[in-house]
Amino acid sequence: MNAQACLQMLRMIKDVSFASVDKEGMPHNRMIDVMLIEDKKLYFCTARGKDFYDQITQNPHIAITGLNTDFQMIRLHGKVKQLNNPKVWIDRIFEANPVMNDVYPGDSRYILEPFVVDNGQIEFFDLGKHPIDRQSFRLDQEVVQQHGFLISDACIGCRTCMRNCPQQCIQSGTPYFIEQDHCLHCGLCYENCPVHAIDRRG
Amino acid sequence: MNAQACLQMLRMIKDVSFASVDKEGMPHNRMIDVMLIEDKKLYFCTARGKDFYDQITQNPHIAITGLNTDFQMIRLHGKVKQLNNPKVWIDRIFEANPVMNDVYPGDSRYILEPFVVDNGQIEFFDLGKHPIDRQSFRLDQEVVQQHGFLISDACIGCRTCMRNCPQQCIQSGTPYFIEQDHCLHCGLCYENCPVHAIDRRG
Questions:
Q1: What rounded mean pLDDT belongs to chain A?
Q2: Suppose B112 and one of A19, A58, A59, B45 were both cysteines; which one would form an S-S bond, judging by CB atoms 3.0 to 4.6 Å apart?
Q3: Common-topology check for domains A3-138 and A149-200
Q4: Per-residue pLDDT for A11 more than 90?
Q5: Residue of A nearest to B108 (CA)
Q6: Where are the domains of chain B?
Q7: For B111, which of A63, A130, A186 is closest by C-beta distance?
Q8: For residues B139 and B124, is the Cβ–Cβ distance under 8 A?
Q9: Do residues B195 and B154 lie in contact, with contact meaning Cβ atoms separated by under 8 Å?
């Protein structure tokens, strides 16, 4: 996997959820079509009359997620940018998504405004495999923010974490280590370590 | 449709997206299984090690959305409540969702904490019909908050709104009126009314 493949997966799923935050700090969530994917950029549109439009023009932070039929989940956190030349973009979007004409026939399409997400962090999470598999990518050049847990040098090698891990993704060593690609981030190792040698990442 | 039927639809979709807000006010979004539905209550669980657990125990406001294969979308905004007697609830959840044992075998299930959503507003939005169809419900006794647009008595009956509506859901009258169940909330009527007779609701 890589960032572009993750975006293509969102386009294949097509109807994915977009979460935004309103000016009172409340979360909102709805299914939106992924309209176009180009070179690590995701395009979508929404109508100027919708609460969603107000929310993302006031606060561009957005969290997108989708799941395919193989139980592979994509999560994308980034900032939306409203596009210049909206009519050109809306025409391109309708050309690539002709079913949009059923909802917005004729010139009514121009009530829609186009947006792009070309930054932020993507997580790929495969729940269809055992052990589970996860990978993180950036759409831009920033460093990937890590989550989950790390075993420190305080580890005494007692195997408690290894015994408790539901995904068997902890290996012995000095110190023991978590196979991060297979970790659920459930916290069982963290809660059960008798010497508190396990720390949160990020 | 009613509130309970909407929750049952989320259970049928099963993997639906849950949006939360972290302590910096940023949105997060991921797919979560709807585990149980009972008398206008939705149950789910998450592991104590996950960022999601921290987010919803610090800020219980959540926005859930899912889409079925008929392009019917459910949106639910409410507050989560953490449940007492977590082991009893987790055992009930695993009994109803035996596939959970593949991810959390044996006693590792008890790293999960059970939550319920028994309040808030639900929106049903059917994009598979023409014109589209939408309805709102409450899970508790509060009044449904209305969105979209209303035509006021300032209407001069010029038909501009009716001509512009992509869903043909504006009817003549004194004043003209919007068939709210079929409205996209796109804002074309609002933007084009020559006498500004159309107001936002809610």
A1: 94
A2: B45
A3: no
A4: yes
A5: A166
A6: 3-138, 149-200
A7: A186
A8: no
A9: yes
Chain A residues 1-40 with a CB less than 8 Å from chain B: 15, 17-21, 25-31
Fold classified for A149-200: Alpha-Beta Plaits (3.30.70)
Which CATH homologous superfamily contains domain B3-138? Electron Transport, Fmn-binding Protein; Chain A (2.30.110.10)
Model confidence pLDDT, tens digit, residues B17-43 = 999 999 999 999 999 999 999 999 999
Per DSSP, helices labelled H in B40-124 are 51-58, 86-96, 100-103
A44 beta partners: A115
Task: Search chain B and give the residue with CA nearest A192.
Answer: B111
Q: What is the pLDDT of residues A87-144, one digit of tens each?
A: 999 999 999 999 999 999 999 999 999 999 999 999 999 988 888 899 999 998 767 7
SS3 state at A100: helix
pLDDT band with cut points at 50, 70 and 90 for residue B142? low
Tokens coding A36: 């176009």
Pairing outcome for strands A61-67 and B133-138: unpaired
